[in-house]
Amino acid sequence: MASISREEVTDEVLMMRFQGGDRAAFAGLVRRHKTNVYNFILRQVRAPQIAEDLVQDVFVKIVQNAADFKHEARFSTWAYAIARNVCIDHLRKAALRRHPSLDQATSTSSGEEGPTLAERTADAHPTASVERVAIGAELGHRITHAVERLPAEQREVFLLREIGHVPFKDIAEITGVPENTVKSRMRYALERLQEALAEYEDYARALR
Amino acid sequence: MDCQKFDQVVMDALYEELDELTYAALRRHVESCARCGEAWNGLRATREVAMLPLEEPSPGLEDRILAAVTDAQRTTPWHRKALRALAWAGSHAMRPQLAMAALFFLVIGSSLLLLRAKPGTVGITPVRVTERGVPAPDEGDLQAPAQAPPPPIAAAPMAAAAADVAEGAKKSKDDAADKGAAKETEGAGKALAEARATRDGSGCDASLRLYDDIGARYPGTPQAADAMWEAAQCQRSLGNTDRARELYSALKQSDGYKARAEEALQESETANQTNNAGGGLVANRAAAPAPAPPPAATSTVAAAGKPAGKPAPATPTAEEEAQRAKAAPGGGPGRNVNAAPKRAAEQHPAPANAAY
């Protein structure tokens, strides 16, 4: 019951309360958004530990830049813009440090059999994807895999829309590309996923 | 709706960002269009199926986040604090009330500036107009001529003393004034000598104008006072007692002649009273011998003026009488009776004056 009453308060109201010095309001925002932000980052960096550190960075930045938040904007849009920048910074630094590229596993592997680093690290969390019980764990792995293999700009749009629930207009603002381009990227991403999941369609249809 | 429009709005429709009317049009289109229908069904199925499974982060993440946030808040860098303060001030500055107040002060302030610095008025002093109608350029210049006259008063009898009295700060100015005073004294002296010569030569009547002229041209100088005194004497000898008294009154202002002028005034007053008491005929008769004594007793200058001066009084007196008769409201001889003693009284004090 308590969770329902908390849900009634919008992110923006919580943010306003936090700006007024209410630390509990910020704890509410963390509770509400930490999982989605974590998944948004995880699907890009593919390392749970790094993803958790980055989530921490994102919330610290939210606090530090709380004064910049304008209440006419959506909190989630603002927060995901910060999360996106944190991800981009991390990936750029990682590339500079010549860490083994996370994409290399798929690009060098012949076919779809070779598991990516993300898949290997994801396996360390057997409790993943518990919410979508209708879809089997196998399908979940296939989807995650397909999303991780999407081109970065399509994956970014897909994650922002599917995990962040950011409207296309705001995604265009965050990524700095026209809204039509954002929608095109989204459509391409969905079509790729459709292809990747073709062989599981019957399975999924059977589950429905 | 056509296929092109379908491609534009299909994503909005899929994620419930489309208005109901367009959504209904899309639904009608996909039912009639095989290509769009297939695409729509495929995308919708994918969206429903390909829901990305969300992984839960480790349970301790929330606490770690809150700890990190608390830590970050405690150690907020000074420049970030400054920026935050600036942002706060900025957000307040943009509030309508403050903006209006700022605008108000800006408008008032700028209008005051404009009032003060009205074009064409800077550096131009107001034009002053003197009695003569000549524009005086500056206040300082205005004072200079005003200061110039005083020295001449002291210049003639004691030029050195006048120089001492003059203030050291305006020495050069005063020097110039002294020179001017010396010139004036010289001119006044000449004019006085000329007037005396005229009086001696042509009589009091002719010299009066010259005496008046000295008074007008060299006001305040001792020569002017001399001229006034002599003019008064002349007026008295001519029988113009009123005019003489006026001059005596004026002379009371002059230091050198104050006592003499007062005395002369008093004498004329008493003479007037005596004559009034005496009666018209007596006074009239007394008027004839009266002019005689003064020249006899007065200084050489006055004595020299006597022969010339004697015939002169007759004419002006007659004229004066005629004028008074005309001016008098009654106009009859009765009035003349009154006028006669007055004239006698005017002329009578002369001997008393001679004693001086």
Descriptive notes:
The complex is a heterodimer of chains A (about 210) and B (about 350). By secondary structure, chain A is mainly alpha-helical. Chain A has 12 helices and no strands. Chain A has 2 domains: about 1-130, Rna Polymerase Sigma Factor, Chain: A (Orthogonal Bundle); about 130-210, Arc Repressor Mutant, subunit A, CATH 1.10.10.10. Chain A has helices spanning about 1-10, 10-20, 25-45, 50-65, 75-95, 105-110, 115-120, 135-150, 150-160, 170-175, 180-195, 200-205. In chain A, α3 (about 25-45) packs across α4 (about 50-65) and α4 packs across α5 (about 75-95). Mean pLDDT of chain A is about 80; it is low at about 1-5 and about 105-130. With about 350 residues, chain B is an all-alpha fold. Among the domains of chain B are: about 5-45, no CATH class; about 170-355, no CATH class. Chain B has a two-stranded antiparallel sheet with strand order 1-2. In chain B, a hairpin with a 5-residue loop joins β1 and β2. Chain B is rod-shaped. Mean pLDDT of chain B is about 70; it is low at about 145-150, about 150-155, about 165-170, about 275-315 and about 325-355. Chains A and B meet through α3, α4, α8, α9 and α11 of A and α1, α3, α4 and α5 of B.
Quick synopsis:
With 208 residues, chain A is an all-alpha fold. Helix content of chain A is 71%, strand content 0%. Chain B has 20 helices and 2 strands.
How do the SSEs of chain B run, as a string of H and E?
A: HHHHHHEEHHHHHHHHHHHHHH
Largest interface: chains, residues each: A-B, 56 and 38 residues
* CATH architecture classification name of the largest domain in chain A: Orthogonal Bundle
Which stretches of chain B are low in confidence, meaning pLDDT under 50 for 5 or more residues running?
144-148, 151-157, 167-171, 277-316, 325-356
Quick check: average pLDDT of chain B? 68
Q: Helix fraction of chain B?
A: over 70%
Strand runs of chain B, count: 2
Read across the widest sheet of chain B, the strand sequence of neighbours is 1-2
**Strands of chain A, total number:** 0
Element-level helix/strand string of chain A: HHHHHHHHHHHH
Distance between the termini of chain B: 136 Å
Helix content of chain A: over 70%
Strand content of chain A: under 5%
Outline of chain B, from the CA principal axes? rod-shaped
Strand content of chain B: under 5%
Q: What is the oligomeric state here?
A: heterodimer
Contiguous helical run count of chain B: 20
Domain RNA polymerase sigma-70 region (chain A): 29-95
Family (chain A): Belongs to the sigma-70 factor family. ECF subfamily.
Keywords (chain A): DNA-binding, Sigma factor, Transcription, Transcription regulation
Protein name (chain A): RNA polymerase sigma factor
